[in-house]
Write a structure and sequence with these properties.
This protein has about 325 residues and is mainly alpha-helical. It has one domain.
């Protein structure tokens, strides 16, 4: 599938999901009323915590880079995370920010190291979140429908198994050894170089990244809970421990910054627990609003950096002609 067709698909999914929700599931007016009555204190707290979480993730990233003996200024990684959030919010994918971070980091190191650490950074966070969700599920399963419990167990177990295989390294090298060199993880192709960077970070760096991810994901869960409190969803914090992994994994669905998908997923997750449909949709909108606000901060950072670059080149050009 070409990039253009994939972007069209993403736009269609976001627009189609929102059109279905507001056309067949909830009233737009009632949902807007929920948002108008939302507690701005909770939303502002969620925004601040989301900003803090970007800094924590930047620290996790630098830990992995140091595992490869790469020295990158921490401030640069923080800026890249905020800029990445801007691209994740406004490009037709929630992972556009990861691509942007990897591309920008290639100015400081090899592409394989940039891509490998970005992937490992994302993966360590997701693995810890899946483990948290699976561990807390028994305490809230009674509030969920059977299909949702099975979905959570299936997603968590599959994700943890894949993550364990990737981090273990040797099994995937054997499994892909018979593939062509450009597909084999043990070959000399680009894919093998990226995987070598992933496994080359070392157990100590990965262990530290996983530990940092515990703190980050607790903040992530708290952000979701604060947004739920803001719109009055009436579901306890424990429920968010089990359902936040699904909200996060929903970012894998092609869409524009998660719009439409997150609202649909939050409706499926929280209406079985007794939340009104309009409130559940409002939760998804609030979460998207928080990420959008952080993305705007990243856009401002990106714009300032580009302006400084243009001014520096203009001065250099003036000096050379003078």
């Amino acid at each position: 599938m070409s990039k253009r067709l994939l972007n069209v698909l993403r736009i269609a999914i976001s627009v189609g999901a929102l059109a279905f929700l507001f056309g067949a599931v909830v009233s737009p007016g009632d949902t807007l009323d929920v948002l108008r009555r939302s507690d701005l204190v909770y939303l502002f707290a969620a925004f601040l915590l989301f900003s803090v979480s970007l800094v924590i993730r930047a620290y996790r990233w630098i830990v992995l880079l140091r595992g490869l003996d790469l020295v990158i200024p921490f401030g640069r990684l923080v800026r890249l995370y905020f800029v990445g959030q801007f691209f994740s919010s406004f490009l037709p994918t929630q992972f556009g920010g990861d691509v942007m971070r990897a591309l920008e980091l290639t100015e400081d190191t090899e592409a394989s190291a940039a891509i490998g650490t970005v992937l490992l950074d994302r993966m360590t966070g997701l693995l810890v979140l899946l483990a948290i969700g699976l561990g807390t599920l028994p305490f809230v399963a009674a509030q969920m429908e059977r299909w949702l419990v099975l979905l959570l167990v299936g997603v968590a177990c599959a994700g943890l198994l894949v993550g364990a295989l990737i981090l273990e390294g040797r099994a995937l090298l054997r499994l892909t050894g018979w593939l062509p060199s450009w597909l084999s993880l043990g070959g000399k192709g680009a894919l093998a170089k990226v995987y070598a960077a992933v496994t080359g970070c070392g157990r100590a760096a990965v262990s530290r990244a996983l530990l940092i991810s515990v703190g980050f994901n607790l903040i992530n869960i708290l952000i979701n809970w604060l947004c739920g409190r803001a719109v009055g969803i009436g579901v306890g914090l424990g429920y968010f421990f089990a359902t936040t992994p699904i909200l996060s994994v929903s970012g894998l669905v092609p869409s524009i910054g998660g719009w439409g998908v997150r609202e649909a997923v939050s409706t499926a997750l929280f209406t079985p627990a007794g939340a009104d449909q309009e409130v559940a949709v409002a939760l998804g909108l609030a979460l998207n609003g928080i990420t959008l606000a952080a993305g705007l901060v990243g856009g401002l950072v990106y714009g300032v950096e580009r302006l400084r670059g243009l001014l520096a080149r203009a001065r250099a050009g003036g000096d050379s002609t003078g």
